[in-house]
Amino acid sequence: MLESATDFIRQQIDRELAAVVGPSAVVTRFPPEPNGYLHIGHAKSICLNFGVAEEYGGRTYLRFDDTNPLAESLEYVKAIQQDVAWLGFDWGDRLTFASDYFERLHQCAVKLIENGNAYVCSLSQEEIRQTRGTLTEPGVDSPHRNRSVRDNLDLFARMKAGEFPDGAHVLRARIDMASPNLNMRDPVLYRIRHAAHHNVGDAWVIYPTYDFTHCICDALENVTHSLCTLEFEDHRPLYDWVLDNLSLNARPRQIEFSRLGLEHTVMSKRLLQRLVSEGLVEGWDDPRMPTLAGLRRRGVRPQAIRDFCSRVGVTKQDNQVAMELLEFCVRRDLEETAPKGMGVVNPLRVRLANYPGDGEALEAPWHPRRPDLGRRSLPFGPVLHIDREDFAVMPPPKWKRLSPGAHVRLRYAYIIRCDEVVTGANGEVAELICSYLPNSKSGSDASGVKPAGVIHWVAAHAAKPAKLRLYERLFKERSPSGADFMASVNHSSLAIASGLVEPALATSREAHFQFERVGYFHRDPKLPNTYNRTVTLRDSWRPPSGGQPS
RNA sequence: UGGGGUGUCGCCAAGCGGUAAGGCACCGGGUUUUGAUCCCGGCACACGCAGGUUCGAAUCCUGCCACCCCAGCCA
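YS: structure for the whole thing
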C-alpha cells in the first residue's frame, strides 16, 4: 500500500491494512499529562502519532492524560497545546481530556466489580506494597479480595460519595497476585483523592489510574494504534486485560517504541526541574533547555525539529543521538530561510585613514541565493568595527583574515589594508589604522588586488549595540549520568557579549538571521535588543598551531 | 536467581535466507566576495559471542554474554 514503510510501526500497519477487506482507518493519539513542559523527546512522539495518521488518511487526538489532579494544571494544558501547534500539527476538533470520560470510566469500573473482576481493598498503601511480593517472589492475596459484589459496590459508591479519607480504600483489579509481571498483581484502578481537578473541579474525589484509564479512552476514541514508549511494554498485558473484560466496540493495540536519547542533555522531567529550581538555567524556556519552549526561544524552527525526528527514526533500540545531528538539521533549515546580515561579537575599531567624507550607503542582498528575500542598505564609513578574531598581529600560516600589511575584503564593501596597529596601555590591540582601495568596491572591483580573505564588519556611525547570548552545551559530558549529573553541568554554557549589528538587521521584522561567518541568531522574544545564538556555523578551519579561531 | 525488551560503522538506522542502504560525524578534493553553503570522492570481508541448519545466514535453530525496563494509591 505504501511504497516505502520507514519503520516497524508503519510496516505493521501496512500488513494490517493489507489483510483488511472493508474500509479501514488509522486513529492515533498524543496523550501528554499536563504536568510539565514538552521537550524534544515528546516531539518524536508527536511526529510519529500525527505523522502516521496523516500518512494513512487517519486522524489524531490530542488527549490530556489528566488522571492525577495533584500534579496537573491549566498552565501546562495551554503550554502543551501551543507547542504541538507550533510544531505544525492540527488536532482539529479532537482535543480531549481523560477527565472528559470520568463518568464512563466509572461505569466501566462498576461493570468490572459486577463481574467479579475488581474489588475494594482496604489495605494501606504500605500494606499493599508489602504484599505485592518482589521480582522473584509472588505476592499474597489481599484479605479483601473475596468481598462480595454487593459489598464492593457499596464501598465503591461510598468512596465516590466522599465518605472516606484519602488512602482508606482503593479499587483493585482481581487478576493474579502470583503473576511474574508485577503490573498484573491486582493493580490499583481507582484511588481516593480529595483534590480539585483543573478540568472537572471538585466533581470527583476518586480518580482512575493510568492503567485503567488509558486503554479505555483509547477504545472510546476508536484509537487503532496506541503508540507509547518502551517502559509501558510490561503494561500491555494489563491494557489488554482491562479491554478484554469490558465490552467496548473498539479494540486498540498498544505498540511501544524507544524514547529519544540526546547527547549533552537530559530529558527527564525531574532532572530538568532541578536545573530550573536550582537556578542553573533561567527557566523552562531557557534557550539551553531541550524543551520545545527553550528550543523555540533559542531560534530552532519547527521544521528543523521535524526533520530531526524523521532522521532519527523509530525503533525499539535504546539510543543516544548525537547533538551534531540536531545542529545539522538546524543549520540546514536556517541556511535556506534566514536572511544573512552582519554582526560583530567582539568589536575592534578600524579607522580608514584615507577614506574621504562621512560615509556612504552600500547595498547588499539579504541572501545571495534567495533574491526573493530582498536587499538592504548597508552603511559604510571612515570608522568601522570588525571582530577581534579576524585580526592577528602575528598570523599563523594560511591566515585568511586581517594582519599587518595584509589585504582583506570587507564583505559587500571595499578591500582594506592594515597599515598600523595602535596598542593600548596594557599591550592590547586598541585600534587598527587601515587604508581602503577606492576602486575595489564590491561588484565593481578594478583594483586587481587579491585579498587574503573576506571578513564581516559594521560601520561605527550606524551600527546598533546588541547583547549577543552565546550558548554552549548545558552538559560537558555526552551522557550526563542520572546520579551525579549536576557535576557535569557546564557552568559557562552562557556567555553574553556586547556586540554590534548592522542597522538593517536591527530594524528588520525578521526574527532569525545568519550573522555571516559567525552563526545563526534569533532575536530574543523577551529581552530587548538581545540575540540568541541558535547555532554556530560549521567551522573546518583548524589553526596549524595553537591559534584561536572563532 | 522472576518477567518484559534490545544488541548491524564513532552516533542514528535500513536489511525480513542470496552474498552489508542511507544520514550525521570524520577524512580527502572542487566551486565560492561567508575558512559557510553547494558539489565530488573515501569511510563495516563485517552484523554481541560460540556452535548448528543450509549450496548459501546479519537474516533460521541452540547456548551463552551485555545493556535497558518493572516491586507508585505517577504517567
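YS: worth flagging: The mean pLDDT of chain A is 96.
IM: good catch. Also Residues 232 and 256 of chain A are 7 Å apart (CA to CA).
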